[in-house]
Amino acid sequence: MADTEYALEARGIGKRFGEFWAVNNVDLKVRRGAIHALIGPNGAGKTTCFNLLTKTLQPSTGKIILDGEDISRLRTSDVAKKGMVRSFQISATFTDLTALQNVRVALQSSHGSAWRFWSPISSIYKLNERAEDLLEQVGLADARDMKAAELSYGKKRALEIATTLALEPKVMLLDEPTAGMGHEDIEPITELIRKVSRDRTIVIVEHNLSVVSTLSDRITVLQAGQVLMEGNYAEVSSDERVIAAYLGGVDDAA
Length: 254
Hints:
By secondary structure, the chain is α/β, with parallel strands linked by helices. 35% of the residues lie in helices and 25% in strands. The protein folds into 2 domains: 1-83 and 173-186 and 201-254, Rossmann fold, CATH 3.40.50.300; 91-168, no CATH class. The chain has 10 helices and 10 strands. The protein has a 6-stranded mixed beta sheet, sandwiched between helices. Strands 2-1-4-5 form a 4-stranded antiparallel beta sheet, with helices on one face. The longest helix is centred in the last third of the chain and has 14 residues, at 183-196. The model is unreliable at 249-254 (pLDDT under 50).
């Protein structure tokens, strides 16, 4: 690991679709061990920027640096092996598998045994202890034998975080972790994110500014595909440009 205070950096990244720049010359520095939020009004380019950072999209310009290494041209799977893993806005679990089985599948992947069909079934049972530990960490110990489809929406998101943790990420990128949740689910997920952040770096895209204010150490505000400002929540929430951007809004294009 490179000796740097930043776990993740974007240097002048941009993404062009035809003649339209969804993201244009964005610089971002995410401190190691911090929770860094990307926010902005609809159409600001948050989703595109997030997809560039996670390598779901390839940048048209600029570089993405993970632990001092240029990962700009690597595939998502290769980036995951280097310790950066994303979760999705829509819960990505196997609905017909139990919570334990979902986490075990992720563990199989991280241990390089996902496709060893010739191995005896007993070989995956050794992963149960670690899977149960991860379920305990996210508050799902009592739901180990429930199918994912039977879980509440908030618990599905907790299960998704457990499967992400199974990949042993150093950097986690969370896409709208509280999207679609009722108030009763938001606080537990917020507390869970804070808990799992203790020994890793987290980048979140989040519309709920109450969640952002509670969790974030640093916030980058995007507008029209560019950085409008960066600061802590007190600085961002009182900035006249940010207030104008949110009150004025634009059509959602990214």
